[in-house]
Amino acid sequence: MRALPALAKITFAGFIVSLAVGLVAALGTRLGFWSVDVGLHTLFPWCVGIGLITFVAGAVWILWAMIANDSSSARYGLIGLVGVIVVLANPVLKFWNSHGMPPIADATTDTERPPVFVSLLTQRGDGASSPDYNGNAPMTFEGKASTVSLIQHKYYGDIHSIAILMSPERLFKRAVTASYAMGWNVIAIAPDEGRIEATDTSFFFGITDDIVIRVKPSGMGARLDIRSKARLNSDYGNRNPQRIRAFAKELADTR
Q1: Domain tally for the chain?
Q2: What is the pLDDT of residues 28-37, one digit of tens each?
Q3: Cross-strand pairs, 35
Q4: How many CB atoms lie within 10 A of CB 208?
């Protein structure tokens, strides 16, 4: 069957093209050859699109090969199919986790009095979004008009201030340890103010988000609030609330 080896080689070629487009989109953005809009929103969708077509071709090939008991060009087919699954794994997982959830570019555990940036103000650059939190800004999701803070409370109700029965000094030290454990670039540690500031940069596209943590006394213990904000106006997604969730888990595991 000549069509079967040809389909295997098409799968392999599709994997190579998808991988190449993805690397060009990511590395070009990270190296500053073009903006995030071009790399992430224009070029990268081609990587995903080609990858999905390749996956379908690979699935047809492997089913056909099993039924026909024909291993012709199996090396090309298997490398192509497994390779494109690896290429698609990250974007598909992110899409799955964010499906049906609103994009919150500025998430915080305290929408009334959110932590404020201090040290990071000089690093955000002219093209960065405003450092101010605007929870009252209008936002529409799934056809319903609301505000950023109300939508966050509705869809990310588990994101709230962390109150613990321990001294503020101890909680602050745990927060510092957890921040480093998250792999963030810690910019400022101000124990007297109970403030920690850090950045988190994505591996492939080099997109930087800003983080500020505030620890203060609360009753018999201490209270921690955290804010995660996308630095770019054009950069949206739900990784900011997800980052806060991950930090809360890391903090709970830190001793």
Answers
A1: 2
A2: 999 889 988 8
A3: none
A4: 19
